[in-house]
Give the backbone structure.
Amino acid sequence: MNEFKNTMDVFKLLEKTNCRKCNKPTCLAFAASVFQGKIALSQCPFIDEDILKKYGSQKLEYESAFEQDYIKVISQLKDRINQIDLESRAEKLGGKFLNKRLILKIFGKDFGIDKNGEIFTDIHVNSWIVPPVLNYVLSSKGAELTGSWVPFRELETSIDWARFFEHQCVGSFKQVADTTPSFFRDIIELFNGKPVQNHYDADISLIIHPLPLLPMLICYNHPEDGLESDLNLFFDSTADKNLPIENIYTLSTGLANMFKKLAKTHG
């Protein structure tokens, strides 16, 4: 089996069309990602079968520090899941226990978690959603929702995260809402959003449920009479009792980034 010694070894095999069908901006960027083990050589549509036989099944040992940390964290969470009684947690978490799995409604869809911490669902599971889900199973206090909505910065444990949240999450949501007409329709269709009336005098108000005991209220005002548009996110006042604040941040920013990708696709 031939091995790549550097990025140029990969680049020499490519057609150099910069076609972007591999979702990379250039063939050189694609070659760098292949060498680093981030993408498979077979994702180039112009690679010959003979070349793939020589290089395609090569397994590179490279992993980014982030990937290593992520794998370590997930492994630790799964070990902890294995030590708890999922059936006894089901009712407290707003879920049910069926066929030896804890079933939770996440964005309106059924997610099953087994005793090994594996997640089962009919849709693709994004990597950013796994730590919050497992931490919800492990850490949620099952606090009853109050119906009192507060911004992220007013949650009791948010002090170290609030500044980043406004920029990384609220700002991203607002950008997509301003530029993508289908934004709120997508929330309703893809994430089981429920329109609500007259919340904070917003033009559009929607509630989504990333987790059973973690609803999120999105309020948006269109630009008007020289005023900029305005978007705000609110959580039930019990949010950081039902999920650690860092996982609320991860879940919210992951959702915002997903919508940015959807908006780019629509564009």
User: Anything to note?
Assistant: The longest helix spans residues 245-266.
